[in-house]
Write a structure and sequence with these properties.
By secondary structure, this protein is an alpha/beta fold. 36% of the residues lie in helices and 26% in strands. The protein has two domains: 140 residues, Rossmann fold (3-Layer(aba) Sandwich), CATH 3.40.50.720; 174 residues, Dihydrodipicolinate Reductase, domain 2 (2-Layer Sandwich), CATH 3.30.360.10.
Amino acid sequence: MAAPLRVGLAGLGSMGRNHLRVIAAHPECRLAAIADPDPAALADAVAKTGAEGFADPGAMVAEAAIEAVVVAAPTTAHLALALAAIGRGLPVLVEKPIAATPDEAFEIVAAARAAGVPIQVGHVERYNPAVLELGRLLRAGMLTTIYSIASRRAGPFPARIRDVGVTIDLATHDVDMLSWIAGERPTRVYAELAQRIHASHEDLLFGLLHFPSGATGMLDVNWLTPVKRRQLVVVGEEGMFELDYLTQRLTFTKSDLAHPQLIAGFAPTFAGDVAEIPVVTVEPLKAQLDAFVRAVRTGDRPYVDGEDGAWAVAVATSLLRSAALVRPVDLGDLPARLESA
């Protein structure tokens, strides 16, 4: 067997601590270095893992004896850390969003292409086993035509998020997911935003995505809901899939438009048969790290690569622009910008 991959971790925030746990337990990885400016958090992580500690993530990327980097620092630090790692030829797993702006995302993609360094982006929902099973069924033709895809990602306000709003921080998950489910990227977006409790950014987004096939995507993303909700509904010609990311539960309700039922003799409803799709539960973050190690070892294109991450940031930014302009925004030039990055 190959020697364990020496990994450096930049950032010990909420996601960083999850990465710490998963990397430290992975049989093909060795957590060789950790960086965080919080002395107490860093000392605790170093004591638990035996990794070399750095107060400055940039110094870790530049100096540590590592073979790959996981970037879980604040979004505004992603560009500098990703470019530094690429400059050393180190494969990078960067938390989503890949960067704070489309231009920064395109810069990372261009640098990685030029250096031949793999960049994987932490759109962890793509590794959820219920999502993977849904994708398999859709690719097998279980829905001849997709009519709509609706995503709800809601929960309490995370005090740690100060540098970006809910659109860049969370809606990038759903922009990526809806594009993957549709099998195509949107051509037009529209959004409404609100800022209720965040000091400087929006904390509520309602967004619409128009896809070339005619499918419509809907995003309901907020930091205002008192309980965490992560749900996806895909409606098509033959019926409807419902997915809960948190429980990894997937169901399919078959359409039965030929046999309407009446409610108290009045309003018709079309009740379909509901089937629960078997899903073997796994931790998506571990599956994501498995994929990263595999991409580093084989040189294959990462499952969720820098272009995917850049596209998600670009579309999320277009949603912000749409809300500011109070009109739909066409995305016609984005594919060309990504291609030329």
